[in-house]
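chain below, 260 aa
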Amino acid sequence: MNKKIAFFDSGIGGLTVLHQALQQFPEEKFLYYADTLHVPYGTKSADEVRGHIFDCVEAIVQEDVQAIVIACNTATSLAVKDLRAKYDIPIIGMEPAVKPAVEMNRNSGKRVLVFATALTLSQTKYNELVSRVDDHHSVDSIALPELVEWCEQLDFDPGKIADYFRFKLADLDLHGYGTVVLGCTHYPFYTSILRTVLPDHIQIIDGSTGTVNHLKQRLGLVAQHGDRTGKQVTFLSSSGRPEEQEKMYSALQYLEMNSK
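prediction:
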């Protein structure tokens, strides 16, 4: 019997990545662990967050999982290298999908706009990524910390969120952009609302597909066509409160309903 595949995030954002995995591998068993005691990460110091990440991953390893997906761009940038050095199971990280976005717009003359947390944007790993792939200096970035907090409150009010996007984008000429990259796993919860604000020509992408493809390659998984209603997901959190597990389940159901 296969061991569970673990997904880790500060809160419910990583469910957007788990949802992608469930669509491809409905017969696998998954564990989702949220650090609900310390969410959000993006507004804390790097050293503080790094300590929380290691504590959580140690708890996950005790569950005897076959791999861990760090379904958080901030956590990946801060700790994935050291985690891989410490543990001998596959640890899959993720990064903002800047490279595919730049390639998509290479011949169009359009710019790329990255949404991420302030902590992700401040990290050397992110800036090295941009420097490596952005040879035409076409990448801009904006921090959207409020989205994480609203997402954790299951606040998906379309009017409020649309107004927020309009405010954050007010100083930009959106016609000059070809792609928006959602560089925080919480942000895809708001893709449908963002779509109503952006011009039709702008594409919206995130790192979930690439991360799940990497997981597939590392574990030798084969895409399945089973009944997703029977999926097996175990929800755990650093707080251990039952209401946190209920919130994670509700958020996953929200993603399921909005993907149909």
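Strands lie at 5-9, 29-34, 67-70, 91-92, 111-116, 139-143, 177-182, 203-206, 232-237. The first strand starts at residue 5 and ends at 9.
thats it, cya
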